[in-house]
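Subject: Sanity check before I submit

Could someone independently write out the structure tokens for this chain? I want to compare against mine line by line before I put it in a report. The sequence has 359 residues.
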Amino acid sequence: MLMPYEYMKMQRLQSIRRKSLIFRTLLQRWAFLMPVVLIGVFVIGHVLTKQQSVEVHHVQKKAMSNEEVNTEYGMHYNTAYESMDRVGLGIDGSSTSESNDTYKSTINNEKESGFTVLAMSSYTYVDMTENWLRSIETLHIYPNITIIATDLAAYNELTKFSDSLSLIQAPTPRKPGDRSYTHFRWKYVLDLLQRNQDVLVSDVDTVWLENPFPYFWNRHDIFISWNPVSKRCPGLIFLRSTQNTIQFVKEFINRLSKEDSDTKVLNFMIDNQVIPTLTYSILDPLRFISGWFYFNDDWRTRHANVSPVVIHANGINMTSKDADWHDAQVKHLKKYGLWFNGNAKLTWEAGTASFVVAK
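---
Independent answer below. Compare away.
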């Protein structure tokens, strides 16, 4: 006859065995579903994490009104940028006033400059290129400028700008629309960096309203412009000739052979710290302003005290009256008093502006 405590112990053991048997049976019958469940949990977790880490919304394909742009981007910009510590964007908050002397002697002296401004233009954008050059001319700074002409028609028109412009023509230009121009530009950037030249890459649809060079005074490897859509933007990027930068651009070119968007490559490499030792700074979006903001009337009203250094004519909403993207850009630049083209010839008191036809 079992004692009470022995009987209770036996009952517990039998209960454990029954539960164990049920668990093994369920595991055998439904084991094939476990990988599906685990994958589902992983995907859901990844999506939730990605949603939480989104910095900006993707641009909508349809045209938006000023009010819609303000709601979509302006308010997001206020909360995500103006109210946050700018160090979070990699923006150097130091004053630039003490750096003016750093570039005073170099900007106006070709031999001492040590840097090149690199741009690229097709025939369609010759007028925009001229506007960009004239905006620089009004600042009375004369940096060394190299322009890659993507077709002979562009080259021939660019040579008419000024007798004082130094011209360099490379053989065998590519056909208009060739996507490899981006690849060629960055190979040219690498060549300049390896010759100990700092490089400022600038799109020709930018307008310079203030000398930008003092804003590159500290020792970061690269300085990158920013907008609320693509985040870091290669439309204006300063690259210092350092081993980190050279290594970065080499890998950048390698990745461009598989991805034709330099914007995507730039953001991927920075986000994933492909070159861990590289240091970078985001140029202040309130001074180096994208068209997403500047051409938004509501945003400009709220930021009436902002003094732009460079304005990039991107983020423009086309209308049915615009012939194409270029036409829309020109109309916006004229509307906002950013069109400098005239009949007088360009003059360069120092430095050189060189024109290169892509190989």
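---
OP: Matches mine. For the report I'm noting this point. Residues 4-30 form the longest helix (27 residues).
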